[in-house]
DNA sequence: TATTGTTATACTCTATAACTATA
DNA sequence: TATAGTTATAGAGTATAACAATA
């Protein structure tokens, strides 16, 4: 891919990363890291991280959601979700109620406290998100979202 | 941000993530995870990860680079770089040579083995990268790269 | 004093596999 | 047998703080 534009953040004096800049993966990694650090800070007042915030958000939108469905929605292995739910339940932000029709399953619900925390966290997350994409014009933003979705969709892990 | 297009990968039956889809951060996280998993697989034959590959690449482009500069280039804390360099040195892919003009510093160089491994890994990484952005038209790719760079550049952590 | 490399710690995320109880 | 939740383990990434040697 010759002639790709120089879009990267400057490196320390005299250091070049031309070969790396040629990789979209590298740009994605750097942008993701920067985004994550900022979003972490924005969610810190609520003791939430990207993961726990997304979990609360999905449960809020889908009351009665099952852990396995939530794991799919978060793109997390079921096993790795348990600890997250344990922590949220210990903080009394969610309830895990046994599913009446399937003895194996649970249904997830936000508690009142969970609803309250999510409402405030959502404001902070949206504010930070808007701040992040503030520098993009609407067309660029739409293209970015579409490109990210296509990349995820066509990844072999999700095929 | 009303009317933002539905760009996300479908969730399990009946589950919605409208509120999350509204966050660019969430799209970035999902796309990044998918990309990373694929790139990991592509680099696995060379026993490299995104991090170690990028380290070799930067050292290759900047012979004599110092660890602190490399840490900046990789957006990694100096302390967290030590183990990475230890591993690469143990595999005889890099040399850490004391800096002649500064007793505190080191200079990093690829060994012959490092050059050979990087050359092959680079091919695999570029092939995988191309595969990933294959679904994007050139305009979308350029916009994506530009958007990622702007996002990183304007993040508070790098301001 | 400030910087370089280093060590140490702790937490998050990811990957993998196996276990149990239900279906 | 298959699935849901769980447990366990290991490795990678990140954040933070401190330290000795050198500038």
Automatic annotation (TrEMBL), chains A, B:
GO terms for biological process: response to stress. SUPFAM superfamilies: Winged helix' DNA-binding domain. Gene3D superfamilies: Winged helix-like DNA-binding domain superfamily/Winged helix DNA-binding domain. One of its GO terms (molecular function) is DNA-binding transcription factor activity. Transmembrane segments: none annotated. InterPro entries: HTH_MarR-typ, MarR/SlyA-like, WH-like_DNA-bd_sf, WH_DNA-bd_sf. Residues 21-153 form the HTH marR-type domain. This is MarR family transcriptional regulator. It comes from Sulfitobacter sabulilitoris.
């Amino acid at each position: 891919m010759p002639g790709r534009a120089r879009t990267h953040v400057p490196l320390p004096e005299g250091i070049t990363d031309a070969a790396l800049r040629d990789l979209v993966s590298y740009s994605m990694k750097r942008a993701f890291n920067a985004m994550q650090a900022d979003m972490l800070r924005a969610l810190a007042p609520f003791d939430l991280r990207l993961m726990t915030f997304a979990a609360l958000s999905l449960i809020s939108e889908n009351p009665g959601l099952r852990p396995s469905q939530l794991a799919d929605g978060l793109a997390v292995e079921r096993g790795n979700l348990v600890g997250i739910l344990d922590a949220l339940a210990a903080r009394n932000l969610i309830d895990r109620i046994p599913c009446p029709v399937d003895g194996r399953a649970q249904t997830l619900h936000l508690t009142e406290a969970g609803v309250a925390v999510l409402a405030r966290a959502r404001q902070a997350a949206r504010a930070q998100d808007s701040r992040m994409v503030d520098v993009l014009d609407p067309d660029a933003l739409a293209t970015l979202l579409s490109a990210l979705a296509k990349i995820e969709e066509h990844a072999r892990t999700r095929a």
